[in-house]
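Design a sequence for this backbone.
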């Protein structure tokens, strides 16, 4: 197990280096000049040259990357070009907001999706099964940004039940209740697609297991449907569910970019969209590196979870 863990951590470092280099290269090859954005359209050529030298943008890309990477290894992610603040505290603050949104999506998507899939499989061919399958198909087909706008128009603009933007009310207390009220619409929007995917995959996995001989034997012994489904069938799809959990948790984290933009949620996705538009290279690089590291850790945790849910799995 420890050797496997070390190999995976080394592979994770290689992945993060590759991701950081590709992002760094793409940012510097795309059109746009941070110095021009910072100084405005009336800046003189001498002013632009001087600012590029101060920011180190006049050096070759490889040298810039090596310099940035060496600072990152020391825990220094640089300073934001536009905000004039240290990057690391800013992305950590924003990332905490994204984690709150992602946690809300996870708490909606996984329990409801799993329950929906189990109920649909247990009632195969009935009206409940058809309704659940149809709802899951619709959920997968609808874009998150469109669903978000629809929820804002319905529940915020027309009904006035829930706030449509932000994480806290400007005039509110800023407490837990205020946060939870603001979290309802964006978390629902973020959870819609993963919930639908989890429901469909859970149903498919349960139908495969329900047809096995040991399930028929359990029913022949007189066990109730709840005991057969909950104790015997569901336990044998946990490895498949762990895979789905890892994939969809990563999707929730990445998909938060769209939801944060629609709902003006002050997370890392909303921050990176604005940073890309203003050519704030250090902020984008730090944000992408943090998200990539989180995604890699989620995948590693998922692989380790396999051995926990299925004792037959061993890592050498």
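Sequence:
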């Amino acid at each position: 197990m420890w050797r496997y863990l070390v190999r995976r951590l080394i592979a994770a470092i290689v992945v993060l280096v590759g991701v950081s280099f590709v992002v760094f290269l793409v940012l510097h090859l795309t059109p746009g000049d941070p110095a021009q954005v910072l100084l405005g359209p009336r800046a003189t050529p001498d002013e632009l040259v001087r600012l590029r030298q101060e920011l180190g943008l006049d050096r070759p890309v490889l040298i810039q990357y090596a310099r940035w990477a060496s600072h990152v290894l020391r825990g220094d992610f640089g300073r934001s070009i536009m905000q004039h603040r240290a990057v690391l505290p800013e992305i950590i603050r924003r990332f905490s907001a994204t984690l709150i949104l992602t946690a809300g999506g996870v708490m909606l998507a996984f329990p409801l999706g799993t329950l929906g899939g189990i109920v649909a499989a247990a009632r195969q061919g009935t009206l409940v099964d058809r309704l659940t399958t149809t709802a899951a198909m619709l959920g997968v087909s609808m874009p998150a940004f469109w669903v978000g706008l629809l929820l804002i128009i319905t529940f915020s603009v027309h009904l006035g039940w829930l706030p449509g933007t932000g994480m806290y009310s400007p005039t509110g207390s800023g407490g837990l209740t205020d946060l939870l009220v603001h979290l309802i619409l964006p978390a629902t929007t973020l959870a819609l697609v993963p919930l639908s995917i989890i429901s469909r995959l859970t149903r498919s996995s349960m139908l495969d297991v329900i047809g096995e001989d040991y399930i028929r034997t359990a029913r022949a012994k007189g066990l109730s449907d709840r005991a057969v489904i909950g104790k015997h069938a569901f336990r044998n799809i946990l490895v498949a569910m762990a895979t789905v959990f890892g994939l969809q948790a990563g999707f929730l984290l990445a998909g938060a970019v769209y939801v944060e933009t629609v709902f003006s949620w002050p997370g890392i996705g909303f921050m990176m969209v604005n940073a890309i538009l203003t050519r704030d290279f250090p902020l984008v690089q730090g944000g992408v590196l943090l998200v990539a590291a989180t995604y890699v850790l989620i995948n590693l945790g998922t692989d380790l979870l396999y051995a926990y849910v299925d004792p037959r799995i061993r890592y050498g």
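The mean pLDDT is 79.
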